[in-house]
Amino acid sequence: MAVADDSAKATSSRAGGPADSSQAWSELAPDYERARSREDSLDRLVEWPAQRDLLGDVTGLSLLDLGCGNGGKLAELLGAGAASAVGVDASGNFLSAQPTGLELIQGDLNELDSMPSLAGRTFDRILFLQSFGYAKDPVQTLQSARAMLTEDGFILLTRTQPIRYAVERAEQNGTSLGEEYFSKSSYTYRTGWNEQVALTKRTYTISGLMNVFSAAGLWIETAVEPELSEEARRRYPHKQEWMNKYLGILIFKLRPRRGSDSGHRR
Ligand SMILES: C[S@@+](CC[C@H](N)C(=O)[O-])C[C@H]1O[C@@H](n2cnc3c(N)ncnc32)[C@H](O)[C@@H]1O
Fold first, then answer.
1. Helix, strand, or coil (residue 64)
2. Number of C-beta neighbours around residue 171 at 10 A
3. CB contact at 8 A, 246 and 3
C-alpha cells in the first residue's frame, strides 16, 4: 500500500495484545518510510506535492509537524527557507542526518499541553499529515494546536478519504458502501507496510470531520482532493487505478475563527 495512512488505534500482533498507536508505530515506522520513499508512492506522487502547494512560501516561518514521521518533510521545508522546524512523533524513528534548525521530539500528539519542549511556543504553520486519526480527543487536540498558532498562522491537516475504507470493508464484508461508510464499529486490518502489525481504525465521515474543525473553533479556508498529474497517470497507471477506486486523501487548510475564544499565545 503506497498511500500514507492514519488510524485511531493500533495493535501490534507481535506484542501479542492491545497496545496504543505509539507501540505499533515503533514497529511500523521503518516500513512506512521505505514505502513512502518509493518513486511510485502516492505520498511522493500526490500527497506531498499537494501539501507543499498549500503550504506555499515558507521563507522565515516557524513550523510544527505533529506525527512527523522521520522528519523528512520538515527537513525539506527548512531547505526551502523555513526558519525553524519542530517535529513530534511517537515512533522516534528520525532522520540520522538532521539539518540545522530541525528539532525532533519523540512524543505523543495527545499530550501537547504537557510537552515541556512546546511550552510557551508559537508556530506559523502546524501540520497533521496523516496523523490526526491518532488523536484520542480530536477536538481537544485541535484546540491545543490552535492555541499555539501565531496571529496569521494556519493548520494544514490531511486525512485519508473515509470512502476509501468503506469501499475496502464493503468488498471484504459483502456489504454496501453506505452501510460501511455510516457504520459506527471500529475495524482491524493489517497494513501493506508490515503484515505483522494490525491497525484498529475508528470509522469517520466527512461531515463528522468538518464538525470537529468547527467545534475546535477553526474554519476551512481551503479543501483539496488531490489527483495524479497527467504525467504520473501515464507513468504509473496502477496508481491511477488505485485512485479511481479509493480516491486518496482530503487536505484542509484551517484557520482560527475570529470571535470565538482564541486562546492564542502571544
Ligand atoms: C501515516 S504516518 C504519517 C507520517 C508523516 N506525517 C507523513 O506525512 O509522511 C503516521 C505517523 O503518525 C505517528 N503517530 C502515531 N500515533 C502518534 C501519536 N500518538 N503521537 C505522535 N505521533 C503519532 C506515527 O509514528 C507515524 O509516523
1. strand
2. 12
3. yes
C-alpha cell belonging to residue 68: 512527523
Q: Give, using CA atoms, the residue closest to atom 3 of ligand 1.
A: 130
Verify whether ligand 1 is closer than 6 Å to residue 141 (CB atom).
no
> pLDDT tens digits for 203-239?
999 999 999 999 999 999 999 999 999 999 999 999 9
Ligand 1 centroid from CA 175, angstroms: 30
Nearest CA to ligand 1 atom 19: 108
- Separation in Å, CA 233 to CA 47, 217, 242, 243, 253: 14, 38, 11, 10, 26
Say how many Å lie between the CA of residue 157 and the centre of ligand 1: 12
CATH assignment of 9-161+204-256, given 3.40.50.720, 3.40.50.150, 3.20.20.140, 3.50.50.60? 3.40.50.150
Q: What is the rounded CA–CA span in Å between residue 99 and residue 148? A: 24
Burial of 243 (0-12, 13-18, 19+ CB in 10 A): buried
Per the CB < 8 A criterion, the answer to whether 172 and 188 are in contact is no
User: Does the beta carbon of 62 lie inside 6 Å of ligand 1?
Assistant: no
Q: In the chain, pLDDT over 90 holds for what percent of residues?
A: 80
Q: Whose CA is nearest to atom 20 of ligand 1?
A: 108
Q: Domain ranges in the chain? A: 9-161+204-256
Q: Is the pLDDT of residue 14 over 80?
A: no
- pTM, entire model: 0.92
Q: What is the pLDDT of residues 83-133, one digit of tens each?
A: 999 999 999 999 999 999 999 999 999 999 999 999 999 999 999 999 999
DSSP secondary structure of 79-123: HTT-SEEEEEESS----SS--TTEEEEE--GGGGGG-GGGTT--E
